[in-house]
Amino acid sequence: MAEAIRVDLSEFQEGAWADLRPVVPWGLVKKIGTTVLASGDSLGAVDVVVRGIVSGWNVADDEGRALPAPSECTDEQLEGVDARIITAINEAAKPLLERIRGKADGASTS
């Protein structure tokens, strides 16, 4: 099994990092599609990506308390995370998601 992809987030919060799953689960792809198609909510899709692709992280809330993994965060906890951290995770996940899109479109991903 491939190792997690470590994203350094210390630029935004001292010692912060996130581990991304190296393989995108099909269920995540379906949830993203459903979120965007059903509501046109691309920002809601970012929450789905972060919750589905981050396997672990070292991120604290604004009071310095460690947060649980995104999949275990409440909506309030996730919404309180520095937007730059969420954006960096989403940007790091894009190449993984693009590989899926390429395969779905019949394009070569090698």
Question: Which structural traits does this protein have?
Answer:
110 residues; mainly alpha; three-stranded antiparallel beta sheet; 48% helix
End-to-end C-alpha gap = 19 Å
Largest sheet: 3 strands, antiparallel
> In what order do the strands lie side by side in the largest sheet?
1-2-3
Could you estimate the helical fraction of the residues in percent? 40-55%
**Rg from Cα:** 14 Å
Structural class given helices, strands, pairing? Answer: mainly alpha
Q: How do the helices and strands follow one another from N- to C-terminus?
A: EEHHEHH
Q: Give the count of helical stretches.
A: 4
What fraction strand? 5-15%
| Global shape | globular
The beta-strand count equals 3
Could you characterize what this model shows?
48% of the residues lie in helices and 12% in strands. With 110 residues, it is mainly α. Strands 1-2-3 form a 3-stranded antiparallel β-sheet. The relative contact order is 0.19. The C terminus is likely disordered.
Summary?
By secondary structure, this protein is mostly helical. The protein is 48% helix and 12% strand.
List the helices and strands and how they pair.
Blueprint: E1 5-8, E2 17-20, H1 26-39, H2 42-53, E3 54-58, H3 75-79, H4 83-104
Antiparallel strand pairs: 1-2, 2-3
